[in-house]
User: Fold this.
Amino acid sequence: MLEQRVYALSDQAGIRTLIDQTGWATLVSGTSGDQLVVSHLPVILDPQSPDLAVLSHLPKAEIAAHEFGQRDVVLIVQGPNGYVSPGWYEAEPSAPTWNFMVAHLHGRPELVDAAATYAILDATVDHFESARSDPWRLASVEDFARRLAAGVAGFRLRPHRVVAKAKLSQDKPLPIIQRVIAALDSDPHYRNPDLADAMRRHPPG
Assistant:
């Protein structure tokens, strides 16, 4: 990913918020057979870690395919994103673009034991159920859940390198940014309120 100062998302609080609010990631590993293995998985922040760390889980067969522990992986967390039409700019010359938020976490995953894996599953459910007025709990089907948990492995990723980007039209004059936000709030084809909110949270400068 091209790193550009104007779009850099470098503060840990902002990166944590991106991960916390997105909750879904892509994991990419290079393996000994010169193959790339790609998985998609839920992620949560590790509440016990003072530094940035994420928790997740995969089926054990998928863990084996990634050859966990043998080399670094990249975990990609992609937040709000969408098309931006130059027709919204009311300025020429201009070209279409794609605004987005994303974080690349580079590191070597640490597998955890069965008890910690179940705790990760429990915490993941609690995280995503927390928005509901009557949250569902894993404990309500504990015997069933523990049987399922036997087939997965939990892991922690403490990245040694994080590259994060919030490309949200910060290079444009404020009137254009405001027009883009207004369009993302209302356009009949490309309405994208999450992206509009992200732009409001990341003004130029």
